[in-house]
Amino acid sequence: MAAPDARPSSAGPPPARSLLLPLLLVLLLAAYSLPADSAARPSSNSNPRPAFTPPLLKRHQLRRPSSSSAELVAGPANASTKPFTAHYFPQLLDHFAFTPNASTVFRHKYLLNDTFWRRPGAGAGDDGPGPLFVYTGNEGDIEWFATNTGFMFDIAPTFGALLVFIEHRFYGESKPFGNDSYRSAETLGYLTSTQALADFAVVIRGLKRDLGAEAAPVVVFGGSYGGMLASWFRLKYPHVAIGALASSAPILQFDHITPWSSFYDAVSQDFKSESSNCFGVIRAAWDVLDERGATDKGLLDLSKLFRACKTVKYAYSIRNWLWTAFTYTAMVDYPTPANFLENLPAYPVKEVVHLSAKVNLDSSSTDHEAFA
Ligand SMILES: *[C@@H]1O[C@H](CO)[C@@H](O)[C@H](O)[C@H]1NC(C)=O
Ligand SMILES: *[C@@H]1O[C@H](CO)[C@@H](O)[C@H](O)[C@H]1NC(C)=O
Ligand SMILES: *[C@@H]1O[C@H](CO)[C@@H](O)[C@H](O)[C@H]1NC(C)=O
Ligand SMILES: *[C@@H]1O[C@H](CO)[C@@H](O)[C@H](O)[C@H]1NC(C)=O
Fold it and tell me: Which GO molecular function annotations are given, in alphabetical order (predicted)?
């Protein structure tokens, strides 16, 4: 799910359809819960970030889990019924230096669920303590990941596992310098995956010591960047974790290893595999947007079509909004209704295709101009 910083590619539109596209896009977007005014701005927040921030980074930083953020996700997630307890660990700011300030600590948050855990000494047999299943937190509030990682809760009873979710430094409540954490290179210098992995190792070992569970095996889990962290953790700390499960983790998505287009190839494939017609329509949309966006009149028309609260200044704003919709839909094309990045039904890509098919039916008999 680590979308590279790139834009949708565009290709020539099939000319006959191009006037229909705005309507189609409006219909498609009706399926999303994005605020209507976000068309007027590159993103729905006021942070001055580049328009094409990788999606997860953008969303996770902004979003705190709320009671509503999880109502469609299986399992309890209400504020009052969170399936975990929060804890804080005095974490070393710098694991790799020996300067006086390297001993600075910050409050590092982690979550626990011990409901299913086979505690040390609890089992009558020789099984020993149940394992620790540890989520290596990625770029966001850890409660949000815990709420959206049902798999670990699903398998914990079978393994008698203790569930641990560790927050990534500089996110959620684990900001070493509070609100000043992002202020300068001096503070941000401590935000590295290398430091984060060391954090995880320290928390896990401290926890096992405190629980008298030093014999308990540890398996790390993660999704997306968190999955990369899980796999790196297993490689770098093989004495701490016996295994890693990395889900949707682009561990090989680096220059000269994986083609730069691989992320968008996968997004495209998601739509193409549902409907090549829908894929073609979406693909053609980018040029139409640019074409319309080239004139003031076109921008006004686009603003009306997309029901922006203000006239959009650049077609790019709408492009960015659409890009988010298509990309997020593909990234969270789950088989169940979910509310991870957006509130979406089951198989959201199918849903989008379904909407586009309706438009095409209409198109065969309707004056194209009427839609424009
Ligand atoms: C969820 O939270 C709301 C508001 O705090 C509360 O009214 C509701 O009863 C809660 N639901 C459950 C299942 O706990
Ligand atoms: C652990 O998770 C299970 C399943 O969601 C839940 O029923 C239980 O209350 C949770 N335990 C704690 C201590 O939060
Ligand atoms: C070390 O910490 C002290 C006290 O927090 C601070 O005033 C000083 O600037 C820090 N020095 C460096 C090199 O970070
Ligand atoms: C940090 O920022 C948040 C959100 O703007 C605010 O609620 C909080 O009070 C701030 N904390 C401090 C210590 O200034």
Answer: serine-type exopeptidase activity
Count how many domains the chain has.
Answer: 2
83 lines ligand 2 (CB under 6 A): yes
Q: Assign 127 a pLDDT band (cuts: 50, 70, 90).
A: confident
Smallest CA separation from ligand 4 atom 14, residue: 179
pLDDT of residue 128: 87
Q: What are phi and psi of 297, to 5 degrees?
A: -60, -45
Residue 202 domain-assigned (yes or no): yes
Q: At what angle do helices 262-274 and 315-331 cross, to 10 degrees?
A: 80
Shortest-distance atom of ligand 4 to CA 179? 1
For residue 80, give both structure tokens.
Answer: 């009052």
- Asked if residue 298 has its Cβ within 6 Å of ligand 2, the reply is no
**C-alpha–C-alpha distance, residues 287 and 108, integer Å:** 47
Query: Of the bound ligands, which one is closest to the alpha carbon of residue 156?
Result: 2
Kindly report, residue by residue over 222-246, the tens digit of the pLDDT. 999 999 999 999 999 999 999 999 9
User: What is the domain extent for residue 307?
Assistant: 17-39+263-370
pLDDT tops 70 at residue 289: yes
Give this prediction's pTM. Answer: 0.74
Residue nearest to atom 10 of ligand 4 (CA): 179
CATH code of the domain covering residue 25: 1.20.120.980
